[in-house]
Design brief:
The chain has about 180 residues and is α+β, with helices and mostly antiparallel strands. Helix content is about 25%, strand content about 30%. Strand 5 and strand 6 (about 90-95) form a beta hairpin.
Length: about 180
């Protein structure tokens, strides 16, 4: 191998290593507002992100947390109303039947975690995070989900719907899961 060829190879290798190090360094420690927006929101027994139980639709809409109000589940009657959660959250909120419409329950399908447990988690992971979790398999045949309920004294009133085929969480309900259809 000749010396000029060797030096070109060394320079090219060094350049590639530098580019690789910069790429890894840049992706390993993101900073700024974009990084915090991408982080999952925290689910508690009172709500998720800006969405809290008892808040009115007007308050949530002004905060940019939900979309427009729309008809809710037909099984609840003609006055039911709901709204979709806005990004980074996925899911919906159900409102009370009377004006002003207040949040009764929240259904999260993405963008948030409760004690590190989010969509895609398993029942053992739920039990690790919430030792007092109660597993109810009565809904497996009818709805195709296993219900995992977290009591108030076990970390808050929450419920997880675990798909029986994938054994993964598909919906997190605050304070309970709402069934429609």
């Amino acid at each position: 191998m000749s010396t000029p060829h060797l030096s070109r190879t060394v320079v090219a290798t060094a350049a590639l290593a530098t580019v690789g190090a910069l790429a890894l360094g840049g992706s390993a420690a993101p900073a700024g507002p974009a990084a915090s927006a991408a982080a999952p929101k925290r689910i508690t027994s009172t709500g998720v992100g800006k969405v809290r139980l008892g808040k009115t639709h007007g308050q949530l809409r002004a905060a940019g947390a939900v979309g427009p109000i729309r008809p809710g589940c037909e099984l609840g009657g003609p006055d039911t109303r709901s709204a979709r959660l806005k990004a980074p959250l996925k899911g919906s909120v159900n409102y009370s039947l009377n004006a002003p419409r207040k949040v009764r329950d929240i259904q999260v399908t993405g963008g948030a975690r409760a004690r590190g447990v989010g969509i895609g988690a398993t029942i053992p992971e739920i039990k690790d995070a919430f030792p007092k979790a109660k597993v109810n398999r009565d809904t497996e045949e009818t709805f195709g989900i296993t219900l995992v309920r977290i009591p108030r004294d076990g970390g808050g009133r929450l419920a997880f719907a675990v798909d029986v085929d994938t054994d993964e969480v598909v919906v997190i309900g605050i304070p309970r899961l709402a069934f429609c259809e």
